[in-house]
Amino acid sequence: MNIVSLADELKKTSYPGRGIVIGKSKDGKTAVAAYFIMGRSENSRNRVFVEDGEGIRTQAFDPAKLSDPSLIIYAPVRVLGNKTIVTNGDQTDTIYEGMDKQLTFEQSLRCREFEPDRPNFTPRISGILHLEGGTCNYAMSILKSSDGDPAGCCRYTYAYEKPLAGEGRFIHTYLGDGDPLPSFEGEPTRVMIEGTIDEFTALMWNSLNEENKVSLFVRFIDIATGSYESRIINKNR
């Protein structure tokens, strides 16, 4: 798979939905994790990211306008020891609880499927970033309906050992806008990871569709020490 510009990939469509990027900085010293949400409805756009312990959660920007909290209020990022979990739904908790009981990332997700939001049946996308012994590795998962048919669930897990410096993988819920929304297909896209945390955050935020983007979270983790820096940008302020 050829490596591509993350900015170009984000600009390819007005509505990639929700997305996860995991990889390693160009100098090889930092693990990178990012998550963004977008929205087309008022309910989906009425959200912000807020810090929650070592992770984050979504929160209604205007509680009076929150019409349905299901599928939009959850903890996208949680930390379990030396593992950082990033997902697009409440399966973050499922992974956390499963791995805390010594299940693998893939085993923890066996009890979950795609979202029940007919007719889109939005895929559940998840990532796990693991630091140990001065190295890092990560995996990504997508649980999706069988070509739009909810009678079947397709489960794909992609593991990346000894990731290369200056690159990562990008997975998102939708191939683009549509009705119903078409689910992401294939292996997570190989993308370039460039710049400082502030440069990388700005690159992602400025590349997302202005009308549909809602919130962005970025974390850079020192692979040797586990210390980290995070950035949150919310369109609603």
Element pattern in H and E: HEEHEEEEHHEEEEEHEE
The helix count comes to 5
What number of structural domains do the residues give? 1
Beta-strand content estimate? 35-45%
Mean pLDDT: 97
Named CATH architecture: 4-Layer Sandwich
Identify the overall geometry: globular
Query: Largest sheet, order of strands side by side?
Result: 11-10-1-2-12-13
Describe the structure.
This protein is mostly beta strands and 237 residues long. It has one domain (6-234): Inosine monophosphate cyclohydrolase-like (Glutamine Phosphoribosylpyrophosphate, subunit 1, domain 1, 4-Layer Sandwich). Helices cover 15% and strands 41% of the residues. It has five helices and 13 strands. The protein has helices at residues 6-11, 42-45, 91-100, 105-108, 197-207; strands spanning 19-24, 30-38, 47-52, 55-60, 77-80, 83-87, 124-132, 135-146, 149-160, 167-172, 189-192, 213-222, 228-234. The protein is globular, with a radius of gyration of 16 Å. The N and C termini lie far apart (39 Å). The mean pLDDT is 97.
Task: Compile the SSE list and pairings.
Layout: H1 6-11, E1 19-24, E2 30-38, H2 42-45, E3 47-52, E4 55-60, E5 77-80, E6 83-87, H3 91-100, H4 105-108, E7 124-132, E8 135-146, E9 149-160, E10 167-172, E11 189-192, H5 197-207, E12 213-222, E13 228-234
Fill in the keyword field for this structure.
237 residues, mainly beta, Glutamine Phosphoribosylpyrophosphate, subunit 1, domain 1, six-stranded antiparallel beta sheet, five-stranded antiparallel beta sheet
